[in-house]
User: Fold these one by one.
Assistant:
Number 1:
Amino acid sequence: MARQVKLFQGNEACAYGALYAGCSFFAGYPITPSTEVAEVMAKELPKRGGAFMQMEDEIASMAAIIGASLAGAKSMTATSGPGFSLKQENIGFAAIAEVPCVVVNVMRGGPSTGVPTGPGQSDIMQCRWGTHGDHPIITITPAYVQEIFSETVRAFNLAEKYRNPVIIAFDEIVGHMRERIEIPEPGELEVIDRKKPDVPPEEYFPYDSSKGDIPPMANFFEGYRYHVTGLNHDRTGFPINACELVHIEEERLLRKIYANRDDIVKNDEYMLDDAEVAVFAYGACGRSAREAVDMARKEGIKIGLLRPLTMWPFPDREVEALAERVKAIIVPELSLGQIILEVERCSKGKCRIDGIFRVDGEPISPFQILDKVKEVL
Amino acid sequence: MGRYEIRFSGSGGQGLILAGVIFAEAAAIYEGINAVQSQSYGPEARGGASKSEVIISDETINYPKATNIDLLLALTQESCNKYYKDLKEGGILLVDEDFVTEIPEGNYRVIKLPIIRAAQEKVGKAFVANIVAIGAITAIVGKVSYESVEKAVLSRVPKGTEELNKLALQIGYEMAKEKVTR
Amino acid sequence: MAYDYSRYLRNDKFPHIWCPGCTYGIVLKAIIRAIDKAGLKQDDTAIVSGIGCASRLPGYVDFNTLHTTHGRAIAFATGIKMVKPDKNVLVITGDGDATAIGGNHFIHACRRNIDITVVVFNNYIYGMTGGQYSPTTPTGAVATTMPYGNVDPQFNILELAKGAGATFIARGTAYHAAGIDNLVVEAIKHKGLSVVEIINACPTTYGRRNKFKSPTDMLLWMKDHFLPVTAFEKLPPEKTAGKLPMGILYREEKPEYTEMYYSMVKRVQEGGK
């Protein structure tokens, strides 16, 4: 059977990707420019026997997907800007309680209400550090409609595999643009489910790391009666006050992600082999950069692109390696300069770093990038 | 075929985003060439200036926005004034002749058609003006077949309005064909 | 023979964190008796809480337990119930947790009439943080953040719940401990959102600052200020001034949320619109 071909918005592809991954619960609250994700889920979930809930607010939506996940469902919420701020406390809860879930942030412009209908990339640091306390997080940054579908499946896989919240962040341009997509057949993309305990209930500890940093997860109502809390806890799930154990457990949470960074980090590397200048860009800027690379190559200018599909954990080694062999790394961002700070940190002064920043609601064009490349060469 | 950029512009509520979606769908799904549709919009659902862009190409389309427009459709004077500067040299400015009366100076070809009037008088429904416009654009662009566009129109319009929309498409196509071939 | 609570308790988690004189232990025992009497299976029951002294209760009981963020217990519980509508979901919350920071979730759960049993431990104060005034602190009472006497008007939790659409409301007190069992049993059996308010005493952060000489005085205050609803309704207004009724105050059969949702799902799956 031929694959179904559709003209989908990025937001629609995200919803269908979630369904492909087995998402059966969605809770959300209307907000521009992410609302289409909720609208597709509201339409499609009932057909599949799943549940969609428009909650009373963003906080409740985040809470509900965590509850749903504990009850055994793969769950997701989607939001933008102010809504993403509101969800932060419960994202931290999901991180410390190790509850798999997926949070979509279709990024708009500005702090506060900002520019609701315009694109932005200024939540990228919030994706990493939005909730309080040390915590592990994974953030996926797709840029093409087809890629949003498959990366949403990957986001669910990573959430289930690592028992962690996974954020999918893309800007309004990518969320709202329509592009041709071929819907993969069932079985074509890998779908991972959480690892269940292989011990009887009386031997089960919900945060038992004796066999690895990722403890198997029993769902509620499966006979494994355990306790889940946002307090720092030990392997039994109950709160602890022994400070040295807090330290050990928090380190495990970070290690769970960082020790597996090679499995999580994913980049699109384009024409980097002989590049003299590299562009580090994601989302809409990543698309522009790819166009700029093609344009430059036609003029004989050797530039390449490092486009992260996983932003957190950050592709630190890749950036450092790149910095060792290029003259400069250009970082175009729909912000006043956020991810450039990470590029600067990881390049360790080994090459020049230049930013192109724009927050006027318009994308950074390939011409702007090309001009910058010519300036640094 | 290289990159070809089309911008649909007018007032919010005229169905221009849908027009862009239909044309992109015709190209990407029924014609099998690459197409990307994007839009920018304000908070209002009706009124204001609205634009929708479609880029078609045989090559991968990375940059989704129109910057060097091959064909600009303007259904209102406001949208014409706002966007004509983005037309490339030798591009085409397609206007509704009743609503865009002041044509800005520039190095491009102007095609004037009574798009909204045709929808009103020949189809009997002003709301199919966007489909009339798609018909005209199909004839002007020439890179996406009439059959593909018709299939896309029929897949997107509400049930029971198929004949109306087919007629609108045909009227737009024929009006423009006459101008293009002349 | 004394009732054996141990099969429902996580016995190794004691002693609990509650202060001497706190009435939460009394209510915990009543809730266990009620769950037992209602016949809920431990594996099929989730108990969810927010933040505060009352919200520590789930840690002590042997069910599927979830101690969430401040005010959000009902929202977490809603996610659980939507995924497993055939399971039992109880929420344990406090006055601040339910009606201040969690007020929005509280009223919307009432509006939906989702089948969750919400037990609100009302001790008129934020106890865990040391005695700040809550939405139920009596006007005039002293709290660390109202050192000159509370000027805030009080919420009536049950009127709020009823107004928002809850289909079962009941009130009990820690003093009338034996009466709590039946209220919770009926709340659990009720199909829809049920709210049981239990009046509790916080001698440490409320009683001491408000002229209660001992925890016993606080229990005696409950004895004097709460009347069975049948008696309450027979009395003239001058005799009930400053007092509140207890018992099952309101009960109504209305379509339950998960039933409505999944009947829509069934209709969609069968090809309806």
Number 2:
Amino acid sequence: MIVLLVAATLRMAVPYILATTGGTFSVRVGITDLGCEGMMIGGAFFGVIGSYYSGSPWIGMLCGILAGIVFALLNGLLHITFKVNPAISGVCVNLLSTALAPLLLKLIWNNESMSPIVNNFGNFADTWLAELPVVGEILATQNILLFITLAIVLIAWIFLFKTKYGLRMRMVGEAPVAASTVGLNAIRYKYIGEILCGALAGLGGVYLSLGQLNMFTEGMTAGRGYICMVINVISGYNPLGTIAGGIFFAFFEALRTVIQNAAINANFLMMIPYIMTLIVIVISARRILPPAGMGKHPDE
Amino acid sequence: MNVIEMKNVSKSFPGTKAVDSVDFYLKEGEILSLLGENGAGKTTLMKILYGMHHMDSGEIWFKGKPVQIEKPSDAIDLGICMVHQHFMLVSAFTVADNIIAGCEPCNGIFVDRKQEYRAVEELIEKFHFGIDPYAKVGTLSVGEQQRVEILKTLYRKAEVIILDEPTAVLTPHEVDDLFAVLDDLRKSGKSVVIITHKLKETKAIADRVMVLRDGKMIRDDVDPRKSSFNELSDMMVGRHVELGVVDRTKRTGDVILSIRDLCLEEKGHVLLQNIDLDIHSGEILGLAGIEGNGQSQLLECITGLRTPQTMTVMIDGKPVSGGPREFLLSGLAHIPEDRNAMGLVSTMSISDNLILGYQDTPAFSQHGLLRQQRIQQQAQELREEFQIKAPDIQTKVGALSGGNAQKVVTARALSQRPKVLIVAQPTRGVDVGASEYIRARIRQLRDEGAAVLLVSADLDEIMQLSDRIAVIYEGKIVYETPADVLSDVELGMLMTGGSPEDLKGAAHRHA
Amino acid sequence: MHSWKDTCKAALKAAKKPALAFLLALIAGGIMIAISGYDPFWVYYQVFALAFSSAKNIASVFAQATPLMFTGIGYAIAAKCGLVNLGLEGQMLSGAMTSALLGAYLRGLPMVIHLPIAVLGGAVAGAFVGGLTAFLKNRFGAREIITTVMLNEIIALLVAYMCNGPFRAEGSIWGMTEEVQSTAVIGKLMDNTQLTYAIFLALLLGILLEFVLKKSTLGYKMQVIGQNIRAAKTAGINVERIFLISFALSGALAGLCGSAMILGVNFKFIDGFSDSYGWSGISVAALAAYDPLFSVVSAVLFGILKAGAMILNRTSNVPKEFVSVIQAFVVVFVAAPRMVDAITSFGWLKRRLPKKQADKEKGGIA
């Protein structure tokens, strides 16, 4: 039971962690990460497309990441280049992505709500990892993306806080005008942050369709992108914090799948983490502040 | 030898020619004062040199070779650095991070923290700046922040340093410190440009003066030691202006504005401490102080924008409390310190802006609906009275010049015949003509019997306009004196925490 | 002061940008239709022709437009004072559930009392959720982008729980509530259509809020806050109160959208009934430049597309999902006037490159 719960929690946590880490890059360069939802949908859908046509989940992953990047570029084009309010540009991405997926489902597979079954990332059930004592049972139901995710989080943290490019990105997010006066191309750094956000949110989407499942179903992101925006706040815009935040939400999601008996209504159960987080966000609203240059442009 | 030559440079913005066929040169090891009014094009010219604006036509030569400067990094690569009027610092970063960002000492792609702090500490030591490299910039004073900005240029091994209005926020004493630093720089062979409209400082430090007016170069080789204030001023403005008209009050009456026991604390810091102020009818009280000593908070408290721990305010003998609305309606008008951020809605018309704050008075509304006819009529009258230059009253305020925008704010405040006027930075970013007009209107209001509180970072303005001066330091009123008793140096000492007993000694030293 | 001619000119000038954006969205959608192997001209012609081909189809246009009017006006009224109400969906669901329960469980009341109570209940529920968002913003400084999104999720789960749990209609397989009483049903304007009297309520509210915005001190204050909140505070405008009013109004409109759908069309709360009415409201309001009355017009435009595509979908295999894509493109183009400028000037005025233009727009002399 506990093993099941831990294993399911890890599986549910990966997409949250990935997309939130992406969101961290976005916020750190001063752009609201509202578009994560749309980028995740793009990643989930095009991941399946890639796997469907190539037969390889790895190609699917690449397609998903690319789709995430394309939607991120749309957000960047609207907000960074054409100075649209970042909330509205995020909504644009989400609306477009939400509208495109069912249309393409209809056009490609003539199905209203789901794709056919495609090759996905296999789990570790038949590998030596499953033989390990204690953790073997948990690892048996995981797949390679779990380790990739943990590596990404660590690299993202080192990148942001230890390298010169991280310092520059954070400077652009805090004060874009100041960054451009010391000779940094603030626009370029904003785009890089946005692209990283799209790639990671896209990868998060890929995990939903090719890691947890083996197909795309309409509405499968179920607002996870929005939750990532929230996890980002409570993790203080720090990649390492996203692990804790992701696991918190994933735990309740896992609880819902593990406790199948209807003694507790699943919908009611899921409200708990949302309400708890809402309370945390509200109470800490004046303490956890996003970068000072949020939504600002380098030429103003 | 000329380090920099700019030849025949022009730059237009929609509606204005900001820089008009200007020739500019800078010699090695000199301090050049680029003198001109607000809007004369000084900053635009220097931003072109720094790669922040692109010129429409013209050439830039660096050390005898033509160069292309497309972006700030091109300028930095040549050794040209600029300290902007609004500091370009990240408050959440440390001093050292602010200095190195953009050209970091590195191990591969990793920032070499050891080297970073060593290099910054060495620089601070060398120029005796006395700043902690580990401190967050947000916690520094304005003077210290400026030193961080100068360190940024030195760290980049700048040969040409441009400073935009560097003394605007400094006390006389800090100005002396800055000038000592600039002198050091000059001695070490660096060339310095100071963008300024202040004549006194130009005379004090510059080797040569260039005068810009309306985007044109008027003179490029004025010797500051051989020119008088009036000559420089006439060149700058283009006509003869009576500088610093002094017209003290003739008659003061009862106390109109009385503030008692104003104490403000935030997060354990005492921002304002036991402030008592009385302003009489027919009197302008000037509040002198370095920015960041509690002036903004004081303004917020006595206009109702912020509720302090304790405060009693009486206007004309009646106690006032509550929010800005209550203060406004009890006869207190407010010209805020930052007109664009606090005083105006730039996307709205002049007539809409002229009722802001008074929209609920019976003059402008009835049963919750706006009385458009009256609003338009009063706007017409005020536009004519205050000579606001605009095509019509439907013009958006954002399209007005600084001087005309400030006239809109002033007209709104004065149109309500206030008993008390709180006015902050009334002439910041305003041209000389409009400045003198606005000052004259403030005096006129005083002569009609109002009590005026003037807050300004410009000590000269305080000394020119006030009938009485109070000095604020670290949230306390440390001294009160009638006008014309203390010199600017003496006021400056009080503003930086000197005690009144030191005044005599200071006077001696300066005599 | 202003002759009607000036007013017309101003209106035309104001309509130019949204019209251009709408056209570009149609072109973008048309390109997608073409890529999918259909003739875009034929599809668009069919959509518009079918939408007006019979009285019943016209009714269907307005029926599709009705919920969008409510949420469009709702988004606009919050946007006017600078608030981003992404919570319309949740506010709509709470209004819908409240109306469904009031309609089903209040018994023995005459229609003149029951219907208004059920409708008002929906508005109040929406206003409550909207007001809660404003309260959290005012009291704690919580950004509404985050709280509205959270509240959407919480309310979606709550109503799903309610219609699957305690309020589930007896014997139903899918989660839904009991059918509302006949005394709480909004009358049909035309038989065998989904067009109800609710459309008049939407129109009335559009006109009313337009009037409030343009002529009243409340509207003046809302606009000042939306354009410069610090100036509003300095001028003594009670920003928090206006935020509360505006968010509550916005939520009430969204709640009414839910009421209109439950009491006029579905007659019960069915789990997952919303066709993203809340999110569509953003498109509608954006096309209307966040103006309440224009929102009514732009809702009709979307109604034509939706109804036309649905009818076309019955007779051909052109997927109706195109409409949502076009709708999304509309927001993209409306939101980015500078992008529209860049696209249109690049097309037939090659010399005006967008970069130079942006450079000029920076303007002013520093």
